[in-house]
Amino acid sequence: QCRGLFSSCNPCALARLRRLDQRYYTAQLLSPGLWPADMAARFGSNAGVHPHARQASPATVARWTARGTVLVWGDTGPSDLERLFGLGVDGVITDRVEAAVEIAGRHGNRQ
């Protein structure tokens, strides 16, 4: 049974967490300029990736989705949310909850 989800920019921290208790889900938190996005997504994650909104493109979302859940974070206004859900992300980490729910629903995403 899963005990929770942890996301971190540090793939070594996620690997240590999994060694301590494999019941935790881990996801690599990606940030522009920190790691090349596709390289970082290969390490430390067993539940997908959490890229910054600026890193999301049709090609990157397709690659990340093949590896797991894609939850995007960053400044996500309504136009950003439209673009991100249109690309097929699984969800967003946002303070604009009402807009995210409405736009996700229009794109057929219920997460």
The best one-word shape is: globular
Instruction: State the low-pLDDT regions, or none.
Output: none
Sequence of secondary-structure elements = EHEHEHEHEH
> What count of helical segments does DSSP give?
5
Termini gap:
20 Å
How much strand content do the residues show?
15-25%
Query: What would you call the structural class?
Result: alpha/beta
Assign a percent range to the helix content: 25-40%
Q: How confident is the prediction overall: mean pLDDT?
A: 84
The major β-sheet equals: 5 strands, parallel
Lateral strand order in the biggest sheet? 1-2-3-4-5
Number of beta strands:
5
| Rg over C-alpha atoms, rounded to the nearest angstrom | 14 Å
How would you describe the overall organization of this protein?
It contains 5 helices and 5 strands. Helix content is about 40%, strand content about 20%. The protein has helices at about 10-20, 35-40, 60-65, 80-85, 95-105, and strands at about 5-10, 25-30, 50, 70-75, 90-95. The chain has a 5-stranded parallel β-sheet. It starts with a strand and ends in a 5-residue tail after the last helix.
Q: What's a concise summary of this model?
A:
The protein has five helices and five strands; from the N terminus they run βαβαβαβαβα. It is α/β, with parallel strands linked by helices and 111 residues long. Helix 4 packs parallel to helix 5 (97-106).
